[in-house]
Records
---
Amino acid sequence: MSYKAHHERSIQDPDGFWGEQAQLIHWEKPYQSVLNYANPPFAKWFEGGLTNLCYNAIDRHLKERANQTALVAVSTETNIEKTYTYQELYEEVNRIAAILKANGVKKGDRVLIYMPMIAEACFAMLACVRIGAIHSVVFGGFASHSLASRIDDAKPKMIITAEAGMRGGKAVPYKPLLDEAITLATSKPEKVLVVNRGLVDYTPIAGRDLDYATERQKHLNDIVPIEWVDSTHPSYILYTSGTTGKPKGVQRDTGGYTVALASTMNHIFCGKPGETMFCTSDIGWVVGHSYIIYAPLIHGMATILYEGTPLRPDAGIWWQLVEKYKVSVMFSAPTAVRVLKKQDPAFLSKYDLSSLRALFLAGEPLDEPTASWIHDAIQKPIVDNYWQTETGWPMLAIQRGVEVMPHKFGSPGVPSFGYNLKLLDDATTAELGPDQKGVIAIEGPLPPGCMQTVWGDDKRFVSTYWETIPGKTIYSTFDWGIKDKDGYFFILGRTDDVINVAGHRLGTREIEESLSSHSNISEVAVVGIEDKLKGQVAIGFAIPKDASNVASLEAELMKTVDQQLGAIARPARVYIVTALPKTRSGKIVRRALQAVAEGRDPGDISTMEDQTVLAQIKQIIEQNPNKS
Ligand code: AMP
């Protein structure tokens, strides 16, 4: 079937299309309807059907694949490399599931996972969904303040962590950050399960902390029966940044997500059961949830979980793993490729990459020099794909399993099956024709696997995503885009205050709140500016209360962000200024700040109250340029 016919059918006959895709997974009890869209924009996929994500990822394969590799956990930080067969993965997951149950975790309870990239993190996620508990993985790079706000929103009964992660050969303690977060949070978990990797000393809190090795030993031979859940039962919450300082809990269902992921493995990623997939993301991000953990396992593949940087012990490490484990599908981010680009391409060409069919890249715009460089270095198709935490799987991609259409540089391709994508004029809401810039929107229902709602806040789901285009109930991606005459989309950046640093999505508002918490700050603004390596970096502008005491203020502000949000949110520079450019109604003109920080002409500044402010800021930047 051609791409066009395939896509059209998925939109015009969702019941027929997704009913067929649903056959890819196990249903303990058949669903009553493929789609219930009686209460838009809330879509219920496969309602009434009983299934389980863990069963589909592991148990279902045991008959055929018990001795096949399911998980390869590689750490170039600790030099530990361990392979688990499907049978071994099954046993490890059952042990954690038994620990959770023994500590009173039940269906619907939340379990927060704050862990580095170790095999136990994968066991923990699968153990949660096995018993119908809802996991919320928080990226290990987030610090106590971010963690506390997520704890208060998800209210986990239990938290699973490790005493430390490791990056670039240095141990990064996790436990003290978690302890501080729990102190800050109003909602306290009953238990904290700690995987002790022996990297740093830590003090367990009596009565609350459990040692994983000891607990595992107690449940070595336990088998925990599958908790069959309705297809619409939440499988996980994953927090993401938006325009307010309060992170949004993206809530995902069970059945729709499992079907969608299985379907993408056939239509987009084209891995085969028994082969190996290597996704270099982190379990703290949506790409990690979908393509390190769930999709490859649902599809009967082996998956590689990698702790370390792409450059240690040398820039050949990822490609060495491709050769060693005969990786057929690889998934990474443009930033990682830009890091490799600074190295000798011989590191890549030295390994036998014949098993590799394609390299998928997502998370941020893929610029042409980066795409060409990696294509020349590995001589494989480079498949840019565009999506968001909210959607859970690609919205735009060349769907190689449907039709191998030509790639166009700068475009992640065409709408994926199930996505009724529109380009709308943000002012008139009219649908736009070729080569006109507009907001990328999705006509409901969102396909299976996309967010169901914002955790605990249906109203916020509707008002944030579905009510931004006047007069229309349509999902906004908050991305600008353009479509060419062949239907290929090009992404032109966000419409809101979200920035993308090295593929990590950050809300400038969160960073502003953190900077404002410093006792000597009266007002701040944060903008994202272009960066050659990371795509974007954050730049702060801060007005001190006491201008006579600012010698170490920038360093203190950076430290504040490090401690509260984590180093990933640290701005490249915070300029200490005396005023911010504002409109007459008092709104900060971020667009102008961004322009001067990027060394561009700020354009029309006639609406500003005081036009000299921008000139002063420009001077400060020129005297102290951002060297990141
Ligand atoms: P996240 O929710 O962290 O995955 O971030 C999603 C955002 O990253 C999108 O809304 C886009 O702004 C950006 N993004 C993701 N993939 C791409 C891509 N292939 N090209 C351009 N931007 C992308």
---
Amino acid sequence: MAAAGARRLYSIAPMRAIRADLLDFVDTPVWGDPFSAAVRWRPDHWLLIGDDGRIAGVQPGDHPPGPEWTCDDQRGRLLLPGFIDAHVHSAQLEVIASYGTELLDWLHRHAFPAERTFADPEVAAAGAARFLDALLAHGSTSAVVFPTVHKVSADALFTAAHERGMRIVAGKVLMDRHAPDGLRDDVAQAGRDCIDLIQRWHGRGRSRYAVTVRFAPTSTPAQLAMAGELLRADPSLHFQTHVAENRAELRWVRELFPAARSYLDVYARAGLLHRRGVLAHGIWLEEGDLPVLRDSGAHIAFCPSSNLFLGSGLLDWPVLADAGVGVSMASDVGGGTSLSMQRTLADGYRVQALGGRRLTAWCALHAATRGAARQLQLDDEIGRLEPGLMADLCLWDWAVGAVDARRQQVARDLHEKVFAWMMLSDERHLAATWVAGRRLYIRSPS
Ligand code: GUN
Ligand code: ZN
């Protein structure tokens, strides 16, 4: 089913060229610098897409491509690399914006009941299609995704992503304790399921497998050890989990793992900290954790919308940056309240501002594109508008309506313009999304 208000177009348009304002990053922006040299701004340029779905070239607007190219003149719009949502739950879309609780209670009241329904293959297939179409309708072309504990839900997600040609990193969720009936696995069966899914999906098309530990409280030490063995057996796998999100969660982890130095140390001891590791949240990391994290190469997915909504806390991004720990951006829907990466980035700005820190549009947008791709070791394929990389793209209106149109008119420099766009825009500004050169989302005419 196509996302509401959208038509899905699966037609291949070989040798297509798009004319728009191109923005991406060639380096990592420094914190607090609105005039960063890491920004690559190419206003009014053609981006050429080859028939292999990759970016074939970029050239100025006054140098039109030859007659073999189908030209799509989108002058006055902004073309970005497709966003990468570094942490999101496909089965929680329908409990987005559920009232009244903090993390542990929210899981039991809202997340777990929704996830239990994904044991049914039909529910899982429909949910996966709805979720991926919704991502595309928000400009996100890649994501690191938690489906559910059920193998069928991982299969459904990989199948739907494969059909769309999307770069998805995902894995069956591991949880063998402290979860309700219908949502627990066991070590032996979970190990077999992971191996089967890895064999069928890891590296097939654009799918990649992530060993997916929900969080320390829902896995026994034996299950954590099994996850560590999987990662040791194949270092090309990814790893994802949650860490240090909420203070009650932190106390619980201390009770469950008294020998561990910290919450992060539970994962370190099990051999789970991995250079392709994505750890969501990391608000309440403890002393000694940052060098461990940095040395492992794993990074933190900053989930500001979720952290505000669930009252979890305020991440201090510069502390991580100073320690050399990478940060990506993530919606964490259904804890987060929108799949829109701009809304997520805007919340990220607010969270940093509450701590007296200023997040530039450059650091924010970089973390949702090239920065996330680098952390996932996928930057030779996604995250930039560079010849040879996949044509995963999103095309945006600079303004929708009089207020942001006026704000754009009076912006005095590039950072002011892009920052105002980041703070004021959302999925309503999205005109179209391409995955591997195929336009999979186009806004319906209103
Ligand atoms: N910690 C463990 N599971 C979850 C989840 O589903 N969402 C969030 N935000 N935190 C978690
Ligand atoms: Zn999460």
